[in-house]
Amino acid sequence: MQCGTPDHPQGDSAHTDDGIIFGHEYSLLGAHTLSDGTKLVRIRNPHGKNEWTGKFSDGDTASWAKVPAADKKMLKAEGQKDNDADGEFYMAFADFYKRFEEVTITYDVTDWHSAYFLMIDDDGSNTVENKFSKDGRCPGCYQHSLIVKSTVDQKLYVTAFVVDQTRRPADCAGPRAGNMKNRIYDKSTHTNWGFRGDH
Fold it and tell me: According to DSSP H, which parts of 92-194 are helical?
């Protein structure tokens, strides 16, 4: 798991007064609830330095002095280290909520199966009538089909990467053409998704 901080005009060279770097991703190592109900998160800066200096930081002896010995033993068993400048620290959830804006959880893909398909030297001859333009001003959008067959019920995740954004008809000027250059269409459910950029 990882957690990210908001962007800043100065990029990741800017940081809060209590040491949190802007526009930066941290590792989220765990979460714990102390016997008095205090919720802590355990975080690590992947750079191995520049730690949080606020409440429950390594240097906040006042807050740690109030933590019961049983809780300290539990945290120690979970991997809490001594006050080393290693980039790892604890912070109260209330502070975490104020300073971080996103948490990302990576799927365990141990038992997943994947396949990759690459199309190169596309001559643009495979076109289809554009069904997504309301005014019909895009007569021939390029199309590539991928058929997936399975004998078992399973979830299917599809990711598309488009390298060349220029291969669209010159008259592709539908009302959505400016912000929906690419689409994935699922024939089985008759649904489609638009995406931009290279994904």
Answer: 93-99
Please name the amino acid found at residue 14. A
Distance CA 141, CA 176 (A): 13
Entry pTM: 0.56
Whole-angstrom CA distances from 38 to 31, 43, 92, 116, 172 are 11, 16, 7, 47, 57
Domains of the chain: 2-104 (3.90.70.10), 111-199 (no CATH)
Residues in CB range of 154: below 8 A, 6 or more apart: none
Q: Do 90 and 50 meet the contact criterion of CB atoms below 8 Å apart?
A: no
Taking the CB of residue 29, how many other CB atoms lie within 10 A of it? 15
Tens-place pLDDT, residues 36-51: 999 999 999 998 888 9
How far apart, in whole angstroms, are the C-alpha atoms of residue 91 and residue 58? 9
Measure the CA–CA gap between 56 and 90, rounded to whole angstroms: 6
89-136 pLDDT per residue, tens = 999 999 999 999 999 888 777 887 777 777 666 666 666 655 555 454
- Cβ-count burial of 45 within 10 angstroms (0-12 exposed, 13-18 middle, 19+ buried)? buried
* Bridge partner residues of 4 (DSSP): 25, 102
Alpha-carbon span 155 to 132, nearest angstrom: 26
Rounded Cα distance, 58 and 40, in Å: 13
